[in-house]
Amino acid sequence: MSVSAQAVKELREKTGAGMMDCQRALVEAGGDMEEAIKILRKKGLAAAAKKAGRVAKDGLVAIAVSPDGKKAGMVELNCETDFVARTEQYQKLVKTLAEQAMNEAVADAAALAARPFVGDPGHTVAEVIAANIATIGENIVLSRALHWEAGEGMKLGSYLHMGGKIGVVVEVSASADEETVKDIAMQVAAAEPRFVDPASVPAEVIREEKEIAKAQAAAAGKPEAVQEKIAEGKLAKFYEQVCLVEQPFELTYPELDQLPGRVEQFTTLSCISNPVGGDLIGNARWTGVPLRSLLQRARLRPGVVDLRFEAVDGYTESIPLEKALHPETLLAWRMN
């Protein structure tokens, strides 16, 4: 039997299957649109089964946050290549799944896969993924699904890094501004802290770190009285590595270059080793941002007196906090 081009077009729009597949399904179904859809879905499940053993090492993370910041959902949907991950069809699917995880409070990939798909309630999420495997031609795996609800006086914020390769959701005070929320989420993405602060580190982890530090000190021949002090010092360093609020605030050069509040000013600088009447001095037009604006974002600890700078070649210098907060003190990255 022959089928019309309009019927093939309609079936293709409904299923995303190839034109020839749609035509063959309509012929097999005797022109019945619903039956043709079933045939294509069955073939899709078969195709998905054949591809299930293939490694899905690429993909995307998507995050959905409610307008009031009270709930959020995140999913990780893996595929085989970055080419597929960048397609509109794939990105639409992963974003829809993140919204479904948020709205339906689903915090498990298997549970989400078993639910009716929000965009096509007649089929489960797993069936829709199988259909996409058939049309896209790669194995697709729903690896993770997560859901959060903000506590009283709190809100949720998010950040996607590298176009969706890394996703972060943070819970902060409801009064926090968007810049602070983004800074915290970006810090989590970059530094991967394991704990919020030292108080949240489990006692057994602290005990293990101190025992390792003491053993290292003992192996180095340090007296027992000194070993405890060394262990405390290494524990403080450990906190800086694994606790969010103890980690250094970091910005990359591209992030610096995009900071708001950029200014240009002429400043005369003299080398620290310039003798009286020497020529190690010059005037230039510098581009940067007031250092105090970055210090405000970094939330300095109480009691700070001086700021210490360290160059890549090992050179160090310090200036009083009062000077660092002066409106003409810049963090500059361009000259002339």
TrEMBL record:
In terms of Gene3D superfamilies, this protein maps to:
1.10.286.20, DNA helicase RuvA subunit, C-terminal domain (1.10.8.10), Elongation factor Ts, dimerisation domain (3.30.479.20), Oxidoreductase, molybdopterin-binding domain (3.90.420.10)
User: Which cell locations does it reside in?
Assistant: Cytoplasm
Q: Output the CDD domains linked to this UniProt entry.
A: SO_family_Moco, UBA_EF-Ts
GO terms for molecular function, please?
translation elongation factor activity
Per the record, the major location class is: cytoplasm
Q: Which UniProt keywords apply?
A: Elongation factor, Protein biosynthesis
Would you tell me the Gene Ontology cellular component terms? cytoplasm
Q: Name one Pfam family in it.
A: EF_TS
Q: Mind telling me which PROSITE patterns this protein's record contains?
A: EF_TS_2
- Has keyword Protein biosynthesis? yes
Q: Which residues form the Translation elongation factor EFTs/EF1B dimerisation domain?
A: 73-249
Known role:
Associates with the EF-Tu.GDP complex and induces the exchange of GDP to GTP. It remains bound to the aminoacyl-tRNA.EF-Tu.GTP complex up to the GTP hydrolysis stage on the ribosome.
- Identify the PANTHER family for this entry: ELONGATION FACTOR TS, ELONGATION FACTOR TS, MITOCHONDRIAL
The record's NCBIfam families line, in alphabetical order, gives: tsf
| Family to which the UniProt record says this protein belongs | Belongs to the EF-Ts family.
Q: Any idea what this protein is called?
A: Elongation factor Ts
State the species of origin. Thermoanaerobaculum aquaticum
